[in-house]
Amino acid sequence: MDLGIKGKWALVGGASKGLGYGCAQALAKEGVNVVIVARGKDALLDAATRLKAESPGVEVIAVPVDITTPEGRAAIFAERKDYDIVVTNAGGPPPGDFRSWDREAWIKAVDANMLTPIELIKATIDGMAARGYGRIVNITSSAVKAPIDILGLSNGARSGLTGFVAGLARNPQIASKGVTLNNLLPGAFDTDRLKATMVGAAQKTGKPIEAIADARRQTVPAQRFGTPDEFGAICAFLCSVHAGYINGQNVLADGGAYPGTY
Questions:
Q1: pLDDT digit string (tens) for 125-148?
Q2: Using one digit for the tens of pLDDT, what is the confidence trace for 32-51?
Q3: Dihedral of CA 42/6/133/179: which sign?
Q4: Origin, by domain of life (predicted)?
Q5: Count of alpha carbons within 13 Å of 191, Cβ hemisphere only?
């Protein structure tokens, strides 16, 4: 299927590895020029090299900045002002007991996982509407639908973003101009973040990491973890011309782990 987005420009956050890289990779393979962002310079430059090798002819610009800061966002928009596609993605806040989180921890979580995506949307959505095409995909978390007690910082911040997007996506002045906003909710995917979580669990319980991983897989009906490649493919479809009637939705990719009907 031709997704109809060849030649467009995308901004992808957290794109040096994991789910962000999977999204950038899938878009680049469709002929989309990408501006990729992450804090780790070496990893990001390596990602850019791989993207260029896999998708010759596509422009790849790497901007190694912290997208959650005003300075980082200014550097991104100094490279390019207008985007047809924006994939927001920032690392989730750490797990823990809510009793130990002070105001600073909450502000940091909200800033990274709610306010930063809103700032990126604010900076790009009017241009999208004026040009008659735009796709915004926010990578959030399956915890938005099924909150996890130790991920309270993430639950709160990402739920705030979800509510904001739900309202904005249904604004006729935006939706009627060919612009969609959707959230993509990953469950257990084979990423460094999942591995770090399992390493922490192994250290806490004294169990082998293999046992922790096997137990985690058993909670997923698919009996496996997702891959960044398949996550990226979902993202690319949501960014395509074929997804113009999918708007304001929370698209859950979790191997069937969510137990609810709706």
A1: 999 999 999 999 999 999 999 988
A2: 999 999 999 999 999 999 99
A3: negative
A4: Bacteria
A5: 24
166-172 contacts: CB < 8 A, separation 24 or more?
166/248, 168/121, 168/125, 169/247, 169/248, 170/247, 170/248
- The CATH code belonging to domain 9-187+227-250 is 3.40.50.720
Q: Maximum Cα–Cα distance for the chain, whole Å?
A: 57
pLDDT score for 192: 87
Q: 196-204 long-range CB contacts below 8 Å, 24 or more apart?
A: 197/95
List of residues 6+ apart from 56 with CB closer than 8 A = none
180-239 pLDDT, tens digit each? 999 999 999 999 888 888 888 888 889 998 999 999 999 999 999 999 999 999 999 999
What would the two tokens of residue 223 be?
């009996």
Amino acid at 104: E
pLDDT of residue 95 exceeding 90, the answer is: no
Distance of CA 159 to the CA centre of its chain: 14
Residue 210 carries which side chain, given as an amino acid letter?
Answer: E
